[in-house]
Here is the input.
Amino acid sequence: MILYESRPVERIISQGKEKFRGISQAKSMRGWINGMIGKYSKSGNTEYEFAFREILNAYNKFHPEKKVELELDKWKGKSSFEIIKGLDKITIIRWQRRNKESEPEETRVDISKEEINAVIGSIKELALSQKSIDTKDIALGYCRRLDIRYNGKGRDLFEGGYFWNNFFSSRDLYLKFNVCLGALDFLGLIKYTGGKTTLLDKDISIQMIL
Here is the structure.
């Protein structure tokens, strides 16, 4: 099986910086491999897609995903988390301290394929017209794509024209959405910080996550 493209990897020196063809803006090797999987899946090249999936399996075996520190937007304390990929969902395992003196508490957040697609779709649509995207705008597109109109207590999210306040105050709904953005940031597909999101890979797709 051929694992590499016939075109050689070329080194380019531009303005004193070395670049390599084929290297994306991914922040990690795992992110780059996921990017290649998404690239070949989109182009219909199943042979290369399968090859890179096997490479990812081998990489995950020898370099298991590590816990990383993620400061959740507008939430107190810090949370360590790891990503477990499934067939139609990802599971985020988090260990969060409620304060500096307390012991870390483990929680698991399952994010379905449909929910991930809703976040990705919202980001890609907004990225067509703006570089730095407000979290509240992504959340609005996310809810519309999933036809989410009410929070866990049955309150209309769009009541009174205060969508963001109603969405943010719904702890479970906001937390799952926010953790999903954090996972995409960890995978190097977006930059998510300070309530703003920047799309790093315009070819972002569900195949890059699962």
